[in-house]
Amino acid sequence: MTLQIKKLATSPSRSGRKLQRYNQGFRLVVGCIPYRIKQSNKIEGSLIEDLEVLLISSQKSSSMMFPKGGWELDEEIELAALRETLEEAGVIGSLEHKLGEWIFKSKRQELFHEASMYPLLVTEELDVWPEKDVRQRVWMTVDEARQVCARSWMKEALDAFVCQRGQRADEPRHHVDYSCAQVIMENHY
Q1: For the segment 82-110, what is each residue's pLDDT rounded down to a tens digit?
Q2: What is the pLDDT of residues 143-180, one digit of tens each?
Q3: Contact call for residues 184 and 100 (beta carbons, < 8 A)
Q4: Which residues contact 182 (CB under 8 A, 6 or more apart)?
Q5: CA nearest to 157, candidates 104, 111, 92
Q6: In angstroms, how far is the first alpha carbon of the chain from the final one?
Q7: Helix (H, G, I), strand (E, B) or coil at 20
Q8: For all residues of the chain together, what is the average pLDDT?
Q9: Start and end of every Nudix hydrolase domain (predicted)?
Q10: Dihedral angle at the C-alpha atoms of 188, 4, 67, 160, nearest 10 degrees?
Q11: Which residues, at least 6 apart from 144, have a Cβ–Cβ distance to it below 8 Å?
């Protein structure tokens, strides 16, 4: 699948809605929270403070968000997540278990969307990708991402990612946060 995704790097982004999937009137979108683990001298597992996530700018403004876009009829959901992330952010990696699903209203249209989000452990950053000329990409800490992400539902997805990793960024390691269980349960229906 990686070779299939890499071929997309030199192709233009998909556009249009004729292959778009819908569920009971909701446009289905899919995206990723691309992340990497900062190099450290720690031998044990990584903490949230060791993670950086990748946000991209909107095409039409400087708003920051995670890569996402339409899930189309001719592809599996995982391939759509990888494709959208490559097209918008220019990264490739290892897709992990789905974080959940969120319903949100489009900012430009009176249309509701159902979004599925996945963590993506980034293994390669491309120098050339389809939307390089219309987007900026920025690596930042989880806390920085929570502050600058323009979409509230994406902040919820980020919280689900942090919970899936096992610790909230602003809490000591020994603290059990029962809201993490709530975040995960709310987004798996």
Answers
A1: 999 999 999 999 999 999 999 998 877 77
A2: 999 999 999 999 999 999 999 887 444 443 333 344 45
A3: yes
A4: none
A5: 104
A6: 28
A7: strand
A8: 82
A9: 25-162
A10: 30
A11: none
Residue type, position 96, single letter: E
Contacts of 45 (CB under 8 A, 6+ apart): none
The CA distance from 119 to 22, in Å, is 23
Contacts for 95-99: CB closer than 8 Å, 24+ residues apart: 95/32, 95/119, 95/120, 96/120, 96/121, 97/164, 99/33, 99/157, 99/160, 99/161, 99/164, 99/187
Please state, in angstroms and rounded to a whole number, the distance separating the CA atoms of residues 66 and 84.
10
Q: 């400087």: which residue's tokens?
A: 62
Instruction: Say which residue the tokens 């759509």 belong to.
Output: 80
